């Protein structure tokens, strides 16, 4: 083969190069590694083509797309990411390259920042030999009598609490039906997701809850009295059913309380994070500390409680970033490496070990949560940092 390529789309037109990117043909892999070593002046265009491939293929959450499907994926990418007039303006392949490069300021590009230096595009590294699959909808339900139910095994007949409350699954969501409830005794259930799991829930009052990985929600099978209180650890997104006579309250382990009437908001309260964040999407909420200090949030505002100082700061929120996990994405905006790795560890159910000091690197960009772990790590690789997957552990090697 003789390749005289000068720009990224020259490479993307070549089936052998696509097979090299996918890694499905050893001869192609060996050829292109030798070719780029012998043609170092082509490295910028070569690396750009690799980034384009990884971005578009990464949006599919997989690394095994066949060559004959990849071009259709690129065409779909163009149809959904560029206005029609721009698609007509460029040739098909130059439009592909332009579309992905335009995303450099958006959700598909990755940049790293260190020691105050300006950002540079990341160089994509080879695929890891060992891999970990992404998380999935899974959780366990602890009923009032202590019975634990793995929800993956919950059949169509559902469950029934002692007070008559019926519990069923509807399109992957846990749904509570209180029409048959009797008596005055309040029974509590707990929905808990493991690391590598998430789940949706419809509470007895119709409030919808999305529970992130490594989280739990304790709630009554019916709401009685003058409020609706639930108890959260970890992270959850709430769409609260309106009931002015019964304000909805989320109680956290540290005593922080989020009170609402009818609204949508996100609470992040993991034990291993330095802050507790309450982000309001719509409506109005009050965030109160046990000492009586409280703040009122307006839509698109965030209350951040620093665990070290116990002070609450209110600022404008990045809503897209905050609720990205609910939409199937990781969103990072100048986040340090430790923060990024904590999120990945929860979703892929792995432990992270640094071989040296945590590098002073900051990341901005997106990863689909359906990506495999090796794919996520490929996007995060930078010069001087290497990731190895050893079973359920990520070794971060700093050189």
UniProtKB/TrEMBL annotation:
Gene3D superfamilies linked: 2.60.120.1440, 3.55.50.30
GO MF annotation list: sigma factor antagonist activity
Domain Protein FecR C-terminal: 330-396
InterPro entries: FecR, FecR_C, Ferrdict_sens_TM
Keywords for this protein: Membrane, Transmembrane, Transmembrane helix
The keyword Nuclease belongs to this UniProt entry's keyword annotation: no
Domain FecR protein as annotated: residue spans: 190-285
TM region(s), chain numbering: 95-113
Organism superkingdom: Bacteria
Pfam families: FecR (PF04773), FecR_C (PF16344)
Protein name, entry field: FecR family protein
